Amino acid sequence: MKKTWDEWGKRDPFAAILTPVWDEGKANEFFETGVREIEEVMKHVETIETKFSDTCIPRKKALDFGCGIGRLAQALAGYFDEVHGVDITPSMIDQANRYNSQGDRCKYHLNVSDSLDPFPDDMFDFIYSSVVLMHMETKYARVYVQELLRVLSPGGLLMFQYLSRPKLNPSEGGSPSKVIKHLVKTTIPEVLVHSVRKMRYERLRQKTNEPVIEMYWMKRKKVERFLEKIGARTLSVIEERVEWPSWISCLYCVTK
Ligand SMILES: C[S@@+](CC[C@H](N)C(=O)[O-])C[C@H]1O[C@@H](n2cnc3c(N)ncnc32)[C@H](O)[C@@H]1O
Fold it and tell me: Could you tell me the distance, in angstroms and rounded to a whole number, from the CA of residue 35 to the centre of ligand 1?
């Protein structure tokens, strides 16, 4: 993971984070997408606060897990006193510091381990992670989600995005061949499907010598069961159908 993302961070972090239309010349527009995304996220936070009166989230410390060059961390600084961005690659962290317009309110950390050891239990009031966990095998995503829950304060809110399934029919933007493929895949144990996927990515990397970005998914029900198992309380799950051309993505909102 580190090698792939570090290579992208050096080559073209803008394109790696969003779509290839972005480049350094459009940095302002790029960061503006973060502002708009966090605006929507904070509207949802307010809805949750209204609905679950026991969850009024303090606006002190926020964490952006997989922060890249700080697109979302900087936007979160508009709502929280202190924002910590964590990323696995030095090149992304370098760029995050370079583009930081929020001074001390944003702090960026390099973390190459599969835990969040630099942070104590219960540290953050709000944690957000978008377009990060879906790029890692589910076994790693599970470990990180458990860690994110550990560093979340009681009464705080964790929101993370993960792909839940490919789009299945033409009205969702899927094709018949995808439906068949998906049906076959769902009858095979996930661990096998992901091993094959992993092997394919490795082969592609060797063939092209390119830093291939991986994509994984986990059914919504499975994620919800996992969250329950680790002691998280799921407050809402938002299905995002527009953002991704071939996938249904879910935004999970949980407390502990
Ligand atoms: C597609 S980018 C998204 C960046 C940011 N979340 C955004 O939306 O602007 C994915 C980021 O996740 C980071 N990442 C991937 N695996 C990670 C891990 N295990 N720990 C921390 N960061 C990771 C990558 O280095 C990259 O910067």
Answer: 17
